[in-house]
């Protein structure tokens, strides 16, 4: 029979220790160890792929290939981040701030999928009435969707085993507990063990599983990181719950590309996909304003025009402020140092604020040169023309490096009526190729970039 044992489990990484300590020996986080009573049961040692005694060594060439069976979810932007539809037997973790739309999106997805296959929505957070009310609001009251209000994982698996749904949503994994452990729901060991049981069930029965995960104040998934390792796909909601646009990014995907971005708009009737989002993040000033410039970023597989705003203002503190919204602050510090060292522009006594319009998060370095131009334009209080855009990566030696898919970025901006491009020399279109209506200025060094901007 099971033997109860006290362990100290880190809430950041899920590592367990036999003694309490102020700092986790595995991940180095402080004050994260909490006491958990764990019972060692004999059945929790099998792998996700099945029972141990089925294991057999095989040669790679003898392995039977089966095509992944994918079902489109009926929600285009979700299919995009999933890599082209929902894979049978796959496990997807969806994280995001409270109120960002996780439950809304999954209700819509299941309602759409339940036209073709049996689906089950397990809610541990809201009552069935609340889920019903939401479905009503979304205009989905007459779909064939099964609901279950339950938090014990053994019961969920038993009921799911009887009904054989093809898709299950667990909203949320932090409310689910297993009888095998005695700690409270939401504790690290509970989250990990319940998720492991659900993942095992999904793999053995071929059920597609969505797990909703909460996000902590620091922006990481609450509960052990080990959840991210157990699942096939990790999707994060980005954007601000107060804003109209919500984005979903694939952080990990065993069945598709990562960093793919799906874009939705929150409306009165739930989330609507934005299928042509390339220019929704531009604020379109009537007159040119200092500190604003457009860049073309590539999120996943499509280009996106984005407005960068900078405000450079005299600082009254010994430690000037460097504030970045939607961008890594280290990148800004680096670019300011490059501007000083390679172009003689000193901003050490200035506060610098950077904002990416629309709540987008920039993850690639192609916006470097645009960021330099925005900061310079605000610093000098000289606006750049409305139809200018820039992209290019900046290196520590003051060089402007090429970025992938330059042609595609140029074409996208030209399509939206931009007239002047400032780009890395290596991204120049090949001889003979032109992009209609675009005046292209190629630069190689940061000093050149800044001189060009001053003359514009
Ligand atoms: P919800 O999906 O419950 O968020 P989560 O599960 O991520 O916590 O709620 C999303 C928010 O969106 C909520 O504040 C209400 C709002 N909302 C709409 O604006 N329109 C709608 O049609 C629905 C269903 C919700
Ligand atoms: Mg919810």
Helix content: 10-25%
Low-confidence stretches: none
- What's the level 1 CATH class of the largest domain? Alpha Beta
Under the CATH scheme, which architecture of the largest domain would be assigned?
A: 3-Layer(aba) Sandwich
What does this protein look like?
With 456 residues, this protein is of the alpha/beta class. The chain has three domains: 1-41; 67-273, Rossmann fold (3-Layer(aba) Sandwich), CATH 3.40.50; 280-455, Ribosomal Protein S5, domain 2, CATH 3.30.230.10. Helix content is 24%, strand content 27%. The strands form six sheets. It has a nine-stranded mixed beta sheet with strand order 8-7-9-10-6-11-12-13-14. Strands 15-16-18-17 form a four-stranded mixed beta sheet. Strands 2-1-3 form a three-stranded antiparallel beta sheet, with no helix packed on it. Helix 4 (153-163) runs parallel beside helix 5 and helix 8 crosses helix 10 (446-455). The protein is globular and about 75 Å long. The N and C termini lie far apart (78 Å). The mean pLDDT is 88. Residues 102-103, 125, 171 line the site of magnesium ion.
Which keywords apply here?
single chain, 456 residues, alpha/beta, Rossmann fold, Ribosomal Protein S5, domain 2, 3 domains, four-stranded mixed beta sheet, 10 helices, globular, binds thymidine-5'-diphosphate, binds magnesium ion
Itemize the secondary structure elements and their pairings.
Blueprint: E1 3-10, E2 16-17, E3 33-40, E4 70-71, H1 76-82, E5 86-87, E6 91-96, H2 102-113, E7 119-123, H3 128-137, E8 146-149, H4 153-163, E9 167-171, H5 188-205, E10 208-214, H6 226-230, E11 233-238, E12 245-253, E13 261-267, E14 270-273, E15 292-299, E16 302-314, E17 322-325, H7 329-343, E18 350-356, H8 368-380, E19 388-390, E20 393-394, E21 400-401, H9 406-415, E22 420-424, E23 439-443, H10 446-455
Parallel strand pairs: 6-10, 6-11, 7-8, 7-9, 9-10, 17-18, 19-22, 22-23
Antiparallel strand pairs: 1-2, 1-3, 4-5, 11-12, 12-13, 13-14, 15-16, 16-18, 20-21
Helix pairs in contact: 4-5, 8-10
The site of thymidine-5'-diphosphate has 15 residues, from helix 2 and helix 3.
């Amino acid at each position: 029979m099971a033997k109860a044992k006290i362990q100290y489990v880190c809430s950041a990484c899920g590592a367990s220790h036999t003694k309490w300590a102020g700092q986790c020996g595995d991940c180095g986080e402080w004050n994260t160890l909490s006491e958990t009573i764990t019972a060692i049961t004999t059945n929790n040692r099998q792998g996700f792929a099945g029972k141990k005694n089925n294991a057999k060594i095989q040669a790679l060439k003898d392995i039977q290939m089966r095509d992944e069976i994918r079902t489109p979810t009926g929600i285009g932007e979700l299919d995009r981040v999933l890599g082209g539809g929902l894979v049978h037997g796959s496990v997807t973790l969806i994280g995001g701030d409270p109120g960002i739309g996780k439950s809304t999106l999954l209700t819509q997805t299941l309602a759409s999928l339940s036209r073709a296959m049996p689906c089950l929505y397990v809610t541990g957070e809201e009552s069935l009435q609340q889920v019903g009310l939401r479905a009503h609001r979304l205009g989905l009251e007459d779909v064939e969707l099964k609901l279950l209000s339950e938090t014990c994982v053994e019961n969920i698996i038993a009921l799911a085993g009887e009904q054989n749904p093809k898709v299950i949503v667990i909203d949320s994994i932090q409310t689910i507990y297993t009888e095998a452990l005695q700690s409270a729901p939401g504790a690290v060991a509970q989250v990990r063990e319940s998720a492991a049981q659900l993942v095992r069930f999904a793999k053995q029965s071929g059920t597609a599983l969505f797990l909703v995960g909460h996000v902590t104040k620091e922006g990481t998934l609450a509960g052990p990181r080990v959840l991210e390792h157990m699942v096939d796909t990790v999707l994060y909601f980005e954007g601000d719950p107060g804003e109209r646009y919500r984005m979903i990014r694939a952080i990990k995907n065993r069945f598709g590309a990562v960093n793919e971005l799906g874009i939705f708009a929150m409306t009165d009737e739930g989330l609507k996909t934005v299928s042509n989002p390339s220019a929704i993040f531009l604020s379109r000033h009537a007159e040119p304003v200092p500190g604003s410039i457009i860049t073309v970023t590539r999120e996943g597989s499509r280009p996106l025009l984005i407005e960068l705003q900078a405000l450079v203002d005299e600082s009254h503190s010994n430690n000037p402020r460097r504030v970045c919204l939607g961008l890594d602050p280290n990148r800004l510090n680096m670019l300011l140092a490059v501007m000083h060292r390679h172009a003689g522009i000193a901003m050490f006594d200035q506060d610098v604020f950077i904002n990416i319009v629309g709540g987008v998060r920039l993850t690639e370095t192609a916006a470097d040169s645009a960021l330099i131009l925005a900061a310079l334009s605000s610093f000098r209080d000289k606006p750049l023309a409305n139809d200018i855009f820039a992209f290019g990566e900046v290196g520590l030696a003051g060089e402007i490096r090429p970025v992938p898919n330059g042609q595609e970025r140029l074409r996208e901006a030209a399509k939206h009526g931009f007239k002047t491009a400032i780009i890395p020399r290596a991204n120049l279109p090949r001889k003979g190729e032109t992009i209609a209506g675009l005046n292209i200025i190629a630069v190689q060094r940061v000093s050149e970039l800044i001189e060009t901007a001053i003359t514009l």
